[in-house]
Amino acid sequence: MNHRITRLPRLPRGMLSLGMLVGCAEPTLVLGYEDGTTTVGIPSADGSGTTGPLTAAESSSGSGSGTGSGPCGLEGELCSPKIDLLFVIDNSGTMGEEQLNLARNFPLLIEQLQGLEDGNGNPAGADVNIMVTTTDFGNPACSGDWGHADYEPARGRPIATPCTERLARFEGLGDSPLSIAEACTDVCDLGGPAFPTDQFIHFTATDDNVSGGTPADALACIGPQGIDGCGFEATLESMAQALDPTTCWNSPGTCTDPAFADIDKPFLRDGATLAVVIITDEADCSVQDFSIMQSQTFMQTHPDSMQPELSSALCWNAGVVCTGLDAATGQYAGCLAANKDSAGGVGLPPGQVSALQPLSRYAQLFDGFKAQGKEVIMLGVLGVPEVTQRAEVPPYEPIAGGVHELEYRVWRDEDLLPVEAMAGVSAEDKEFEFGIGPGCTAVSDDGAFTGQAIPPVRIREVCESLNTLDDPSTVLDETRIRCCIESICDDDFSPAIRCLTDLLQDVFTPVG
């Protein structure tokens, strides 16, 4: 199939003025209880400490049985490993084709999950929950008359309705909006869509909670999220909110929100392996204090006005530091995530709020889950080159291409898509829009460049932090791969799906 990433037209200069954002500089929500206390692994907004373990009521096990995380079947015991799988899907204007690509591979995902084996090579009979949310946490820069009046950001909430009931979400924004309803209708039956009867899809070897079809049908229907979400993607924060153990969908027994009155089963369960899949083509923009949306400190200079103006480059500038720019090639020696103060300085004194949520917030979230005995794995389908080689032993992780060939550089004229060049877009325009050059370029079957995606510095660092490195002082090899990063520019997501399920298989039957 031809793969394309269609960019929305850039907003006219001055359309989103600083005046529109005045009075909207509220900080993002804090994970935890309303009184400000937090649960284990759920840090406060400044990434500081957490309290003790969850009680049984706060982390109920829900439906299903099994031994949970770790090897199973090795001693002949009943296996039925539990898996809680969260999809965080970018629903901004460039993601229609990617959502369709993903949905077409959902049958493979279900097949692979059902085919997981125990330590004796027998079917494990996995007990699976699958929840879907978007990257849209809400941002004052995405409010205003130009947005869809009926749109509400998910803020990590589960999306469990079939996309056929959300077709308005598949029309983009701007003066000439893109419409890509086929991202839904090509994979979900308009006349009889499948959907889960809970806020997530649940299935085992013998039963499921799907009405109107199979778990694969339901995932294909609830998975596509549309293209009218906020272009300042709060990917990591949306993930964290979805995984907050105190929410109605994770702790229904303590929920008082009437909107979730029908929920009686938690998505997160004791003893389940936690798997997170992130699919996005832009940099993480998990803002901690929305006042930065007014700050010229993090804005890119517009090539026409030569003045700082708001664009998606703010997300890159507020959360990443690049060093060693080669003036001849436009390539950086490297880029890393950084906590920046309101003036753009790196390295915050204790108690000072950073521009974006610190990555320690998400590391502590996962550490809390691991302290409860959970295995945590992550798949990122992100802006990196296509993987060209994988390891020959489980979990067959990428070892060439992908992040191993990722370059950080400025935009070049040769990066421009044909449609952009014909419209008079320049490399300077793209640098203003994103603040960094493309991490990958999608290529159609006839060899034409069709789209780009931005390098994933913050998401990559969170993902790779889940890996365990070998301790050279011991004889044993302690290496455990728990992060897989594949390219969103690939026109076939089936290798990414297999990478995810290979990681899960390695959890249940580890090598070494």
**DSSP summary: helix tally:** 11
Q: Which regions contain 5 or more consecutive residues with pLDDT less than 50?
A: 1-68
Structural class: alpha/beta
The whole-angstrom Rg is: 22 Å
Q: In whole angstroms, how far apart are the ends?
A: 40 Å
CATH C-level category of the largest domain: Alpha Beta
Description:
The protein has 512 residues and is α/β, with parallel strands linked by helices. It has two domains: 30-51 and 79-286 and 357-403 and 455-512, 3-Layer(aba) Sandwich (Rossmann fold), CATH 3.40.50; 295-352 and 409-453, no CATH class. The chain is 19% helix and 14% strand. The strands form six sheets. The chain has a six-stranded mixed β-sheet, sandwiched between helices. A hairpin with a 5-residue loop joins strand 14 and strand 15. The longest helix has 15 residues, at 494-508. Mean pLDDT is 84; it is low at 1-68.
Q: Main attributes?
A:
512 residues; alpha/beta; Rossmann fold; 2 domains; six-stranded mixed sheet; two-stranded antiparallel ribbon; 11 helices; disordered N terminus
SSE diagram, text form:
Layout: E1 82-89, H1 96-104, H2 106-114, E2 127-134, H3 182-185, E3 195-196, E4 201-203, E5 210-211, H4 215-222, H5 235-243, E6 273-279, E7 300-301, E8 308-309, H6 313-319, E9 320-323, E10 334-337, H7 359-371, E11 376-382, E12 387-390, E13 398-401, H8 418-422, H9 427-434, E14 440-443, E15 449-453, H10 457-464, E16 483-487, H11 494-508
Helix pairs in contact: 2-4, 2-11, 6-9
